[in-house]
Write a structure and sequence with these properties.
CATH topology of the largest domain: Alpha-Beta Plaits
CATH architecture of the largest domain: 2-Layer Sandwich
Helix content: 25-40%
Structural class: alpha+beta
Number of helices: 4
Radius of gyration: 24 Å
Number of strands: 6
Strand order of the largest sheet: 2-5-1-6
Strand content: 35-45%
Shape: rod-shaped
Order of helices and strands: EHEHEEHEHE
CATH class of the largest domain: Alpha Beta
């Protein structure tokens, strides 16, 4: 009988490492896939960039503006929380004889919310 085991990980790197170890060590594993928030990679790059703020410094009566630009490093606060979330869900399809070994590996590698269905 074929079973499906799912688990959540904090980062995609941890999920990839766990799936690699399971494929190498456990027999009767047919497929292993992961699902993660791809926007989090873009958000991580944006967090390392700089922001520019335009500040009006002078205004005269003829509606002319003189502005200055202030450059500062971007913080992670400008990126909303759902975009920063890097949680990854793994889905492993295996034989029913291997379910206990797969769950043990996922638990040892830091998997959260481990569930299986037959």
């Amino acid at each position: 009988m074929i079973s499906r085991v799912t688990a959540e990980f904090e980062t995609p790197e941890l999920a990839e490492y766990a799936m690699k170890r399971i494929r190498e060590s456990v027999e009767y594993v047919y497929s292993a896939k992961m699902i993660y928030n791809r926007f989090s990679e873009r958000a991580e790059r944006l967090g390392r960039s700089t922001t520019f703020t335009v500040i009006p410094t002078y205004y005269n009566s003829h509606t002319n503006f003189l502005t200055s630009v202030m450059e500062s490093p971007a913080s992670k606060d400008i990126i909303p929380e759902p975009a920063r979330n890097r949680k990854t869900t793994t889905c492993i399809i295996c034989g029913s004889a291997a379910v206990d070994n797969v769950i043990a590996f996922l638990n040892a590698m830091g998997g959260l919310n481990i569930r299986f269905a037959q």
